[in-house]
């Protein structure tokens, strides 16, 4: 079949299918995000236009925003579908590198197709080409190598025959999932080749479920039987495997308390008697208390990031760590007993080995008791009186008015701690907290992708004023395309959570709150977030009290669905009120301050000299 490289790539995308967790067959690549430029408009752009009825194409406003939307889409479909993003060469391509980092850190699949310079080099240097004096083969797209699971530069059309199977493998492999980058030189995109028909034969990708090694399972079962206070920790891998029900049944059968990581949040119904709560710095005191006492921890589908482990201080020093993970890379961390395999299959096999073994019921009962105390704490935070709402009160209002099938998300600033620690879920997979890369701006761009994918309920994204200003252009993309969601923007005049970190470790207020930033104005201007969001095509509601938040959010939900566009709720929030889980986090604190005038305000304890 005589096709250009770009045409062959598009036809291959159309031939790829995927099986969802509930057994439905869907397109592996449900659509493409594109901003055209001289590196992709005539090659890939022409091919996409030819198949526009079979492969939907969405135009964003920034390449980073589009790529983050694709990441949000992958998360909302539990990695069963993959967004494709294409850009021109140069700055358009480099704008996607941050999103590739988000996907890489969070183990989420996305296919990036940046345009590239000419392989012939005949017109060099072309517009937007960065020339490397000692390496003419290098282009800006080599920057993707550090944040791609798989990278290739297609310099001949026939190379697609070898590389496309690898692309599909990485995007659908539970152990290897992540971003794939195919750099496409603009002259190669339009070259033709006689491609074999077999390349375009329909293929349905079903993620494999490898079973753990039996000897390792026996060892893990022995360690659990010997445990007096075991703890089950559920991560994102449980979600992607569809093993939530299996994990809960495993906990119930053996009486093991359950904690969740950031990526595993909402897998367990909040009121379940074995639910200890979320673990770590942004988690709950209830889960952290149990983790400190646990003698064996079975961590399923998690890479045990520092916020989950409180920089490895949340567990006792002599804890026995067992990890069940599809990726050996994650399973072997920190000297764990590595059980490598699928979460669902692995838990089934482990339960068979444990048979009727159960934990001491006194330990089992601790989960409900500790979580009850944490619930009382959250209730007290939500009930605080004051004219300006706190984050906890805003989260409480959204939680109260949300439906079980809804989807809530955030990424950076102080909101992850509030949402992870304070949300009360029904047990459906209803939360996306991008806290692997903590990318400011993901909240809005990712919500656009999530709204495309999560059609069974309403998506609500929660963010601060800093994230809004970082990347808000995809509000217009979603409004223009007709994808509804609600964005709750909490305005506290700056980067409040970093100011909290700065001042809490002995630093002076500097360059975080707007009041502490350099300006030539005695009264610097402030952003009117409501008018700005309205100008981007959104319906807008404002709130200044807890009751206002409930009313505004209820109206925003109705407006988003009825008008098929984002609805934005703007809330003035308190800058210094937080939900604290009582856990340590390791950061670089200066061992010495210079003693220059102004560092110490004379108040005892205001400047601390800390060594971790």
Tag the structure with descriptive keywords:
flavin adenine dinucleotide binding; 36% helix; alpha/beta; six-stranded parallel β-sheet; 612 residues; TPP_enzyme_TPP-bd; Rossmann fold; thiamine pyrophosphate binding; thiamine pyrophosphate; 3 domains
Produce the secondary structure layout.
Elements lengths: L1 E3 H11 E4 L5 E3 L4 E3 L9 H7 L6 E2 L4 H14 L7 E4 L3 H4 L2 H9 L4 E7 L33 E4 L6 H13 L6 E7 H4 L2 E3 L8 E3 L8 H12 L4 E5 L1 H6 L2 H11 L3 E3 L14 E4 L6 H9 L2 E5 L5 H4 L10 E6 L2 H4 L5 E4 L2 H12 L6 H22 L8 H11 L5 E4 L4 H8 L8 E3 L8 H12 L5 E6 H6 L3 H8 L4 E6 L4 H9 L24 H7 L3 E5 L2 H18 L3 E6 L40
Parallel strand pairs: 2-11, 4-5, 4-6, 6-7, 7-9, 8-9, 12-13, 12-15, 13-14, 15-16, 16-17, 18-19, 18-20, 20-21, 21-23, 22-23
Antiparallel strand pairs: 1-10, 2-3
Tell me the number of structural domains: 3
Radius of gyration from the CA trace?
25 Å
What is the name of the CATH class of the largest domain? Alpha Beta
If you consult CATH, what is the topology of the largest domain? Rossmann fold
CA-based shape: globular
- Please indicate the percent range of residues in DSSP E strands (runs of 2 or more): 15-25%
Strand order of the largest sheet: 5-4-6-7-9-8
**Cα-to-Cα separation, first versus last residue:** 64 Å
Structural class: alpha/beta
Please count the helical segments.
23
Question: Share of helix among residues?
Answer: 25-40%
Tell me the number of strands. Answer: 23
Biggest sheet: strands, sense, closure?
6 strands, parallel
The H-level CATH homologous superfamily of the largest domain, spelled out, is: Thiamin diphosphate (ThDP)-binding fold, Pyr/PP domains
Mean pLDDT: 94
CATH architecture of the largest domain: 3-Layer(aba) Sandwich
Low-confidence runs: 598-612
């Amino acid at each position: 079949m005589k096709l250009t490289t770009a045409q062959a790539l598009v036809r291959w995308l159309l031939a790829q299918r995927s099986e969802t967790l509930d057994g439905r067959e869907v397109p592996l690549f449900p659509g493409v995000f594109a901003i055209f430029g001289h590196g992709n408009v005539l090659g890939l752009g022409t091919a996409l236009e030819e198949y526009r009825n079979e492969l939907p194409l969405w135009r964003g406003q920034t390449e980073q925003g589009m790529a983050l939307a694709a990441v949000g889409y992958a998360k909302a479909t539990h990695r069963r579908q993959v967004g494709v993003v294409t850009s021109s060469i140069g700055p358009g391509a480099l704008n996607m590198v941050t999103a590739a980092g988000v996907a890489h850190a969070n183990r989420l699949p996305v296919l990036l197709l940046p345009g590239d310079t000419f392989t012939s080099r005949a017109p060099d240097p072309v517009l937007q080409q960065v020339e490397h004096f000692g390496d003419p083969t290098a282009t800006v797209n080599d920057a993707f190598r550090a944040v791609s699971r798989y990278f290739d530069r297609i310099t001949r059309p026939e190379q697609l025959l070898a590389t496309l199977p690898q692309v599909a493998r990485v995007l659908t492999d539970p152990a290897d999932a992540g971003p794939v980058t195919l750099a496409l030189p603009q002259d190669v995109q339009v070259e033709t080749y006689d491609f074999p028909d077999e390349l375009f034969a329909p293929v349905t990708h079903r993620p494999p479920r490898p079973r753990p090694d039996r000897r390792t399972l026996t060892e893990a079962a022995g360690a659990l039987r010997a445990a007096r206070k075991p703890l089950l920790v559920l991560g994102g891998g449980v979600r992607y495997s569809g093993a939530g029900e299996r994990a809960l049944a495993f906990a119930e059968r053996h009486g093991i308390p359950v904690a969740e990581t950031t990526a595993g949040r909402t897998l367990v119904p909040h009121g379940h008697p074995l639910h200890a709560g979320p673990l770590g710095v942004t988690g709950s005191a209830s889960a952290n208390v149990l983790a400190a006492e646990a003698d064996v921890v079975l961590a399923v589908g998690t890479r045990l990031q520092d916020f989950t482990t409180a920089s490895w201080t949340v567990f006792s020093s002599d804890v026995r760590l067992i990890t069940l993970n599809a990726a050996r890379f994650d399973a072997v961390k920190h000297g764990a007993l590595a059980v490598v395999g699928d979460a669902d299959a692995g838990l089934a096999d482990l339960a068979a080995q444990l048979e009727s073994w159960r934990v001491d019921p006194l330990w089992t009962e601790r989960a409900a008791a500790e979580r009850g105390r944490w619930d009382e704490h959250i209730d007290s935070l939500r009930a605080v009186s004051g004219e300006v709402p706190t984050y906890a009160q805003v989260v409480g209002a959204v939680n109260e008015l949300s439906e079980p099938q809804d989807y809530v998300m955030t990424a950076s600033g102080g909101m992850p701690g509030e949402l992870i620690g304070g949300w009360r879920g029904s047990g459906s997979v209803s939360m996306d907290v991008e806290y692997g890369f903590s990318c400011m701006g993901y909240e809005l761009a990712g919500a656009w992708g999530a709204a495309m994918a999560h059609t069974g309920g309403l998506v609500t994204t929660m963010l601060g004023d800093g994230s809004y200003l970082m990347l808000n252009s995809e509000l217009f993309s979603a409004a223009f395309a007709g994808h509804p969601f609600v964005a709750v923007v909490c305005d506290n005049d700056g980067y409040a959570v970093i100011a909290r970190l700065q001042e809490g470790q002995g630093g002076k207020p500097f360059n975080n709150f707007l009041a502490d930033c350099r300006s030539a104005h005695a009264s610097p201007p402030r952003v009117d977030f409501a008018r700005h969001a309205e100008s981007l095509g959104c319906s807008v509601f404002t709130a200044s009290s807890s009751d206002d938040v409930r009313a505004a959010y209820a109206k925003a939900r109705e407006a988003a669905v009825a008008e098929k566009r984002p609805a934005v709720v703007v809330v003035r929030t308190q800058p210094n009120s937080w939900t604290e889980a009582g856990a340590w986090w390791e950061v670089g604190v200066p061992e010495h301050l210079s003693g220059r005038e102004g560092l110490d305000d004379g108040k005892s304890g205001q400047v601390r000299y800390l060594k971790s």
